Amino acid sequence: MSKKINLNLRVWRQKNRNTPGKFEVYKTQGVDVDMSFLEMLDVVNERLTKEGKDPIAFDHDCREGICGMCGAVVNGQAHGPVRGTTLCQLHMRNFKDGETLVIEPWKANGFPVNKDLSVDRTAFDRIITAGGFISVKTGQAPDAHSTPVPKVSADIAMDAAQCIGCGACVAACPNGSAMLFVGAKVSHLNNLPQGQPEKKTRVLNMVSQMDKEGFGNCSNSYECEAACPKEISVIHIAHMNRDYRQSNLL
Amino acid sequence: MLDSKIPTGALKDKWTNHKFNEKLVNPANRRKYKIIVVGTGLAGASAGASLAEMGYNVESFFFQDSPRRAHSIAAQGGINAAKNYPNDGDSVRRLFYDTIKGGDFRSREANVYRLAEVSNNIIDQCVAQGVPFAREYSGYLDNRSFGGAQVSRTFYARGQTGQQLLLGAYQALMKEVGKKNVTLHPRSEMLDLVVIDGVARGIVVRNLLTGQIESHAADAVVLATGGYGNVFYLSTNAKGSNVTATWRAHKRGAYFANPCYTQIHPTCIPVHGEYQSKLTLMSESLRNDGRVWVPKKEKDPRPAHEIPEEERDYFLERKYPAFGNLVPRDIASRNAKEQCDAGRGVGDTGMAVYLDLKDSIARLGADIIKERYGNLLDMYAKITGADPYKTPMMIYPAVHYTMGGLWVDYNLMSNLPGLFVVGEANFSDHGANRLGASALMQGLGDGYFVLPYTIANFLAQVKPNAKEIINRGEFKQVESDVKAKLNKLLSIKGKTTVDEFHRKLGHLLWEKCGMARNEAGLKEALKQIPVIRDHFWNDVCILGSGEEFNQALERAGRVADFLEFGELLCIDALERNESCGGHFREEYQTPEGEALRRDDLYSYVAAWQFNGVGQAPTLHKEELKFEEVHLAQRSYK
Lengths: 250, 637
Fold this sequence. Notes:
The complex is a heterodimer.
Chain A (H helix, E strand, L loop, with lengths): L3 E10 L8 E11 L4 H14 L22 E2 L2 E2 L21 E5 L8 E3 L2 E2 L2 H10 L19 H11 L6 H5 L6 H12 L8 H14 L10 H5 L7 H15 L1
Parallel strand pairs in A: 1-5
Antiparallel strand pairs in A: 1-2, 3-4, 3-5, 6-7
Chain B lengths: L10 H11 L5 H4 L3 E5 L3 H13 L2 E5 L17 E2 L11 H11 L6 H21 L24 E2 L5 H18 L3 E4 L2 E9 L2 E9 L5 E5 L2 E4 L20 H8 L4 E2 L4 E7 L17 H4 L1 E5 L16 E2 L1 H5 L9 H13 L11 E4 L1 H7 L1 H19 L8 E10 L2 E2 L12 E3 L17 H21 L6 H4 L3 H20 L5 H16 L5 H21 L11 H25 L23 H4 L1 E6 L8 E6 L14
């Protein structure tokens, strides 16, 4: 039998975007340490439902750390205390018996709250729409081997492309900046030969959309990198800034 | 007999000739046609992007907050293509043959050949989109091998191939959103299909944030809504994956084909507790470098490292020397179950076998193994708390993919005109068992290179009139049916939660209709499912209202459909008195315990017609004709 712990959960409850929210406390006993954080919330929700209380709304889907749908701030840290981990892959063995956990949604200008822990991240989709793609139509592609890509470039592109679009970088940033998210996409595509023709318009349009969505500027605190479940490096913000400057000059 | 509309002519010429014979829609007329695409996984996103690029008006619906979340994103290992870059004997014909054989000769020859033909275009397209596939130092693409093949034809992006391919398709879709050729409907769940004069003309959806019920009309409806693995409750699917879109289309007349073909993936992290919400896959690619074994002695209490080499049974290598650890999934899964049933399973529950990377780490070094599988091994360590570089991993089979789905003809159109079904949601290409790295190929093949041609042929023969048809009474009628069902669910106010019902159904199906099935078990399940279903409709507990963000209500609708679909799954499994691929009937096996097909009796697709809840469905058959391949018992020895 695995170990069980007791926890005090202070959870942000908010009915919808237009209603102010508040913290509710849920004493939760007998949490199996092998559970994931979301499984722990499932158990709490089953109990709340049986008690006739509204269960906690939270977004989730794949529960294997890749869809980017889940996320909450746990004790002040986006996706909780373990590095390189989404909330669904955070297991309760990382918490102590008797601990109080403060659980809040992502808080940022660009991410209005839908309900409880669920936020609206459609701003990220609009940023991708502004330029986060290579304009090749289906059928236009040449043979895959017509352009060799140096392994180093392919690897840098892949490091950046791992972004799951969860928004933890924004939630962790003191300034609510989306620059790691945007930088990662710019860096992924601009590091590849296929991304060169649209390199300049891509970065200009994506940055412009990012500003319109109400995200803040980079505060150089590197909190985004620390919170990123894919541990994407802030070097990609530097790549974006380089490309942005060059695009504006020419 | 169903007409699959397979073109005439030699197998290798069918698709080429068909494309020429298909009717086209003039580029200036395309914008007048509206196409609804439900789902934004590989099939839905690639179809939506391609159709929009051609000039059609696309409306894209998905229940998640962004198209990028669809569960294709979780595919790990890779995508097959017949490029033959490694010069090891691959060809379109070999990919076709391996796929037909892997599917245990229960798929349609012409569809599979076409899939193999377009496989190379997929790789070209994805590379052009900026998908960062793994490359060698030369700058050229790297390949690896996968189960059921003796060539290296799998392209990959670390252990995140599905993610990268989906992001490629998603970005192509978003590019078209920017051009206003695609309208996105996030957090919108399709709850019904609207059929007018026998033709699919639209859908009714619920906005999951506001609860609003909306009708949308189109000139064609495309379902790309994935598989039904979550009927088993525990599976490797995302929590939201469901059968609702396809099931409700089935209830409106679309035939459901081969539901009993379910794939149990051999390499998943074993079940560990009652509260468990899902199972996590460890990519099959690990079988390239991992050796599967159990102790020779039953109930051996020793930890793995204390068991000497001669007391280990590398059962896959022993039984299948030619393919070894790379046998197809159904065979690997069944063998793992056999070992555990015989008492040689490992771990606390005895329901696991070892997947051991030790020899590969010794041969290649831990760095190479980390480069190949780093993210998978990290995930394993996070979930289990054990270090796979030091101790062998423990794995057990889990529900992963469903080969069955809505019946479609060669044009990917269901028996309902105007309703197209692509990707995992249809039944057509994988037969009774899907080979590794073929799901990504099929999803993208359907969306990028097949549907854009075949849907044009349909549209060319109809007048675009989505704007007018929306006023027909059928839309209001379906809307009111949908509202009535939601209100009924909310009015029950019982004592049992949605998840409790789901777990109960899932457990029953896993026991009676899982990796091995028999007549008595299936009959028992068919007795119990209606009982659970009645209990559900009398005692389910859903709080709140339908006019708000209500996740329990969303799940309840899906579970209600699983409770009906589960019955069809068992009926189909009972009707098919043979074993093939993922459908293993204990009564039908060879003396060595391999699946025993009965080609003389069951060489057909079983397509079921809905006749009402609890009513016996009508079986329609599509005969499978093999002109090119010789039917044989699969041998991987």
